[in-house]
Specification:
Chain lengths: 967, 97
């Protein structure tokens, strides 16, 4: 290789990687003036010489350094001369001081680098596929250091390398390979796994020539590795390489876009080959410039994009007269006419309010906006809801009541400044993995965490992280728990009186309520199951924190008192003065990529965009004059109300946009009954999902790789979604919605998605300063974006609350009516797992199913033993509303009396079991509490497969018999 | 009336209740800790702000029928709602979910 010219050295045009400054940025004022090769540069003191040089435009060769990792100083390639200093120090570990003079290209430096590079090359395979391809940096570095020959003899036999001939390529991971022979033991992967991901799955084994990296005593698939890909990205050689790169070669084009999985909203550079509909994604590279992820990713975002061209993807509109008929492929025109005429016919017979729409939290803001506009303007009612109904609607209610807006209060970076986190009802390392890594990094730096969760989630104890307190509260007792926390703080005088006096209202009533005996840790212990002393210790720790922050997820909202609990969290933040600066706040971890945005865009039946009630005349005026229609001042039906009304015979038609209500919503028997009661069910999705079984019209959708628009993540950050290819179904989703509205007699027309955003900005004060052009300029912005905050608002409620004063609300604990009894003695609670996403429509169609091929029922050994159940047994799970069969996983992560499962696979039908019980304020289903019984099952798997239906994909060949998920 | 307000609830019976009685009962229990006047007012405001008209009509009809399953507090709130005795200014507040 040293004698050949690069065949594809260097990146393709337009595909330059983001600049790598070699070491992380140092905060502070740029007071150190440094001269590098005659160029002057000002940097904050402590900045590495390597970084300063890069800022001056000089790239020092490096192997073990990257700006995503702390300097390591091992490869010795980056040596420089510093005036007045001895020898040739490594530039990555040498900090700048004012007046320093550095030379990076002297004869001495060149000689050292040459020698070092020769040694590296003597260990590098002469026929490195990566060097030929351009995915290995070695050849480029050899050229830059002027190494044309290697004195030690090239690697022509495997035994001559530091890796022994027996070290085979590890191809066990479905997404990347590890080739020990290409490894130069720079440790970048080991450090990436530790410092960025925080999993510590990799290590350097052996010494000297025997040294190599290893994922513990096993292969990658069997290891602790979570396939985030940080190691692959960090590897400077071809030792760790994406299988897609090996298979397809290097990308030729790149498009900056946003992940379509969870609410973290990671920025990615989609690296692709080809153009137009023939475009193929080679890999997804997380962007360092991404405000949410800063260069990190998880296994879903980086690797699980293959569903977009899965054979199951539907490419044509289809219709049928009744749901027992076969689908018939039709033109877009016919499909649109059928939908429009069908909805109008339903309305003619059953009234204006007999139809409605469900917008998708997976779609863009622009798509969601036009769907709600279609419902309000063309349908003529407010029967629009979104899947936030079943996840974070209580966040909207609770935070609005207390703070005046449903916005989460912080950005993700805020966690870097927190001292104590209270984590409740969320499992970030599985459900929000990139933010989970950020939490772990902060915890390794010394912050503490209190975890309230019925289950021992990973963050309770994971390498170099241990929770200060794990409070295993009983499902359904959240409000009792949060009251006990506040009770302890107030009754022990640990609250922030000044904050309460200056910034809050209804303070006295609340303080009188919270100190009542009923809220004490001692009294609530019966409900929560938490030893009072442990709860008091946790409360004291939280109160004492200079910066205390609250992070929560659906374990807070999906309860009969979800909204009350959100207000309880807001109360706690106010009582401790933890609002309005970095490091604190109430932080909802949103589920779907655009659940924040879909709520912002007016997808709730009682609210126009920007959370403004439909009953407000001045708000309706804005839209009525722009849209030239009359908008109903009455709230519409929520999703569960739609089902009730359908069964009641007054709701007869629904447009379901990118949501699978027949899998994701509770009491599926009830949902199916509702769907079969309707005259016209229209489903738009990538796949024939469960809901499509009940549909009369199916409209194919576009994947996120085909969309132009924006997603808004959990920190209110608007990120651009840019198409890497045109819609493969011939029409953009917003266009289809406009066509339906137009065919219904309400003309809706936009030239582009950008124009839709312009209308959003013109009508919604919190988005006043948003446009695609501004987002392209800024990268991303957090709403509110307006004259007062032209670059967006990372931290809310800084000087005052949105509603003026923060309002303390007495949060009385009302136990759920879903109670256990002799027939149903256990409580089922639900959650997510790392590799699968929600109903699994996307991830089940990728190799992610390697890790989680089915939903399993986790139960405590005591509960299992008394029922004669062992791990791997098929068990029958029954509740008051239904029964299903799952595979058991006996695990002491559970507490006795509580069982747990996920809802990623339709075959397991978790939501056959869950009930219609819901949050009192928002009807968000009580997914987290269902009284159940578990028994060994007699039914075989074949029977279940038959029951499963069309959306059961055989995930990946060869994994059907895989062991149950590891956790 | 217990601390939790409203009825002592039987989960089995609840499953067979019409939605407006079940959901209305949930709302009533959430506000039952306030003095009766205030509670009825809060419940009525909530129904007005968040319930679609046909759900309100349904609960109104249940109360008119004297359905024994209707939470007494909910019934009182419905009477106030019918009397128009609700501070409509409250919907000016951002309402969330």
């Amino acid at each position: 290789m040293t004698t050949t010219t690069p065949r594809s050295g260097g990146p393709a045009p337009g595909l330059a990687p983001e600049p790598d400054y070699g070491t992380p940025a140092v905060r502070g004022e740029a007071t150190a003036g440094v001269t590098v090769d005659g160029r002057h540069v000002q940097v904050p003191p402590g900045t590495s010489v390597m970084r300063a040089a890069r800022e001056a435009g000089i790239e020092i060769p490096k192997l073990c350094a990257t700006d995503r990792l702390a300097a390591f100083g091992s490869c010795r390639l980056c040596v420089v001369e510093v005036d007045g200093a001895k020898g040739v120090p490594a530039s990555c570990t040498t900090p700048c001081v004012d007046g320093m003079v550095v030379r990076t290209d002297t004869e001495q430096v060149r000689q050292v680098r040459h020698g070092v590079m020769e040694l590296y090359l003597s260990d590098h395979p002469a026929d490195c596929a990566g060097c030929a391809r351009g995915s290995c940096e070695m050849q480029d570095l050899a050229r830059r250091t002027g190494v044309a020959q290697v004195r030690y003899g090239l690697v022509d036999t495997p035994t001559a390398t530091h890796v022994d001939g027996g070290a085979a390529r590890d191809v066990s991971n479905p997404y990347f390979d590890y080739d020990p022979q290409a490894c130069i033991v720079c440790s970048r992967c080991v450090r990436a796994c530790a410092d960025i991901q925080g999993t510590f799955a990799l290590t350097v084994q052996g010494r000297g020539f025997d040294a190599r990296i290893a994922p513990g005593p096993t292969d990658f698939l069997g290891s602790e590795c979570v396939s985030c890909g940080a190691c692959v990205q960090a590897c400077p050689t071809d030792a760790l390489v994406e299988k897609s790169v090996v298979q397809l070669g290097m990308p030729t084009r790149a498009v900056d876009t946003t992940c379509a999985y969870c609410g973290v909203g990671c920025s990615f550079r989609a690296e692709v080959q080809g153009s137009g509909p023939e475009t193929r994604v080679v890999r997804m590279m997380p962007s360092k410039a991404g405000g949410a992820n800063e260069g990190h990713s998880c296994v879903k975002g980086r690797f699980a994009y293959g569903y977009a061209n899965h054979p199951d993807r539907q490419m044509h509109p289809m219709v049928r007269d009744s749901i027992d008929q076969e689908w018939r492929v039709v033109s877009w025109e016919e499909a649109v006419t059928r939908v429009a005429d069908g909805f109008r016919a339903v309305q003619a017979e059953h009234g204006v309010g007999s139809i409605g729409g469900i917008s998708s939290s997976r779609c863009t803001n622009e798509e969601v906006y036009v769907v709600q506009k279609m419902v309000r303007a063309a349908f003529g009612n407010n029967n629009i809801d979104t899947c936030a109904r079943v996840c974070h609607s209580p966040t909207g209610y609770g935070l609005s009541q207390t703070f005046g807006t449903s916005a989460g209060t912080q950005d993700f970076a805020s966690v870097d400044e927190t001292d104590v986190m209270l984590l409740i009802g969320a499992n970030p390392t599985d459900a929000h993995p990139v933010f989970g890594s950020r939490m772990k990094r902060r915890l390794r730096q010394g912050a503490q965490i209190i975890i309230a969760d019925p289950r021992r989630i990973d963050l309770v104890r994971t390498p170099h992280v241990e929770a200060a307190h794990h409070l295993p509260l009983l499902p359904g007792s959240n409000v009792a728990f949060i009251n006990a926390m506040a009770h302890t703080i107030v009754s022990e005088g640990l609250h922030d009186e000044q904050f309460l006096r200056e910034r809050c209202e209804d303070v006295e009533d609340y303080l009188q309520f919270i100190v009542r005996e009923e809220n004490s840790p001692e009294t609530t212990a019966e409900a929560t199951g938490i030893p009072p002393e442990q709860l008091r210790a946790a409360a004291r720790l939280f109160a004492a924190a200079p910066n205390g922050s609250i992070y929560y997820g659906l374990g807070v909202t999906e309860h009969s008192q979800g909204s009350t609990m959100v207000m309880g969290l807001a109360n706690l933040a106010m009582v401790t003065g933890n609002i309005g600066r970095p490091g604190v706040g109430v932080n909802p971890l949103r589920g779907q990529n655009n659940v924040q945005g879909s709520c912002d865009m007016g997808s709730f039946p009682h609210e126009l965009p920007g959370y403004r009630h439909v009953g407000l005349d001045d708000v309706r005026d804005i839209y009525e004059s722009l849209w030239h229609v009359t908008i109903s001042p009455q709230p519409g039906l929520r999703i569960p109300n739609m089902f009730d009304a359908a069964i009641g015979g007054t709701f007869k038609g629904v447009f379901v946009h990118g949501e699978d209500i027949a899998q994701s919503d509770p009491n599926l028997h009830h949902v199916r009954q509702a769907l079969t009661s309707m005259d016209l069910v229209v489903v738009q999705d990538l796949f024939l999902n469960e809901t499509a079984k009940y549909a009369h019209v199916f409209l194919p959708g576009s994947s996120f790789l085909e969309k132009d628009g924006t997603f808004t993540n959990a920190e209110r950050r608007l990120n651009r979604v840019r198409p890497v290819m045109p819609s493969l179904v011939g029409k953009d989703e917003w266009q289809i919605v406009c066509d339906i509205a137009t065919a219904m007699g309400y003309p809706m027309h936009y030239e582009s998605a950008a124009q839709i955003m312009d209308e959003i900005a013109a009508t919604t004060p919190t988005f006043a300063g948003v446009s695609f052009a501004r987002l392209d300029e800024e990268g991303s912005m957090q709403w509110p974006v307006n004259d007062k905050a032209p670059h967006g608002t990372p931290t809310m409620h800084v000087d005052g609350f949105v509603r003026g004063k923060g309002r303390l609300v007495p949060t009385v604990y009302v136990p759920t009516t879903e109670t256990t009894n002799r027939r149903y003695p256990l409580v089922l609670t639900t959650g997510r797992i790392l590799t699968q996403y929600n109903v699994g429509a996307q991830t089940r169609r990728t190799a992610n199913s390697t890790w989680h091929p089915e939903d399993v029922l986790e139960m405590h050994p005591a509960d299992a033993q008394m029922r004669g159940i062992s791990t791997g047994d098929r068990v029958e799970l029954s509740s008051r509303v239904g029964v299903t069969t799952l595979t058991a996983l006996v695990s002491d992560r559970m507490q006795p009396g509580v069982v747990y499962t996920t809802f990623h696979h339709p075959v397991s039908g978790t939501n056959v079991i869950t009930t219609e019980n819901s949050d009192w304020a928002t009807n968000c289903p009580e997914y987290k509490v269902t009284a159940v019984q578990v028994a060994v099952a007699n039914a075989g798997r074949a029977d279940l497969a038959a029951r499963a239906g069309t959306d059961t994909v055989d995930p990946v060949a060869g994994v059907a018999d895989a062991e149950v998920a590891r956790r | 009336m217990s601390l939790q307000g409203g009825f002592e609830v039987d989960s089995e019976a609840r499953m067979h209740e019409p939605p407006e009685i079940r959901l209305g009962g949930d709302v009533a229990r959430a506000f039952a800790h306030y003095p009766p006047e205030r509670a009825a007012h809060e419940i009525a405001t909530h129904l007005r702000k968040f319930w679609e008209p046909r759900m309100r009509a349904a609960v109104v009809a249940r109360v008119a029928q004297g359905d024994s399953r209707v939470d007494p507090l909910l019934a009182e709130a419905v009477r106030r709602y019918l009397a128009g005795d609700i501070d409509s200014g409250e919907i000016a507040e951002p309402s969330g979910g």
